[in-house]
# Entry
Amino acid sequence: MGVARGRLAPTPSGHLHLGNALAFGAAWLSVRAVQGELLLRLEDLDQGRSRRDIADGQRRDLEWLGLHWDREVPAQSTRSYRTEGLPTYRCDCSRKRRLAGVCSHRDTPSVTGAVRLRSKQELIHFLDRAQGPQSFVPDQDAVLLRRGGEPGYPLAVVLDDYLDGVTQVVRGGDLLEPTAVQVEIYQYLGWAQPSWLHVPLLLGPDGRKLSKSHGSTEIRALRDAGVTQEQIWAALLPLLGCQGQGLAGAEFDASKVQGGTCVAPNLNTLLPGFRA
# Structure
């Protein structure tokens, strides 16, 4: 067995918030529990929205939270992506046409358009370390390369994790079902897949995904309001099933991580000094 390796993979198009802290905290705890290595990789495929100042702010937020990494690997924008070894076809249909089921390019590929994975469209099985066995049928042929040649997320994340030697993927629960597409890519390429762990997706008290309407949950806003990292982890660690005081002293067991969705901590009561 080689060294366990995890990664923090923020997208530098928006500042880190409590949901990011929960997922990144789980990734940090998971790899530190086995004395593994933690990487930082900027997932900046969307060059139109990615910003250097936000990337710098994300690094500061991670360090302030105590989520120190061992080394930073090249950002996605500096890498190249190819589809060798994968069954593909080109499709220039609009989303509307595909949803209507009138696309014929699976049988008669287009000469232009996006490069899509020719999925087997069968049940894909994988194990989530918290939620147990999972089975999903990919809901469509995933885009591997966009019309302009830019890589799609499913291709980029698989190639990046393989190249970087990542053995643990820890992320938000909204990516649980899309994992099936990535597992299928691993299977096509004959590569060993990493272990998977999906943490709960944080919702506001109204059951909707956290947004400005629930008060700012950005880490920088909480810090500026006088909230400490200890208060943040006191609110978040119970969602990861952790015992112990503070991030460094937490005892991590992936099987105790909550699954699905959960209401975010009430900041006004759990984080004294902050008013949403």
Summary: The mean pLDDT is 90. The CA atoms of residues 183 and 193 lie 7 Å apart. Residues 18-32 form the longest helix (15 residues).
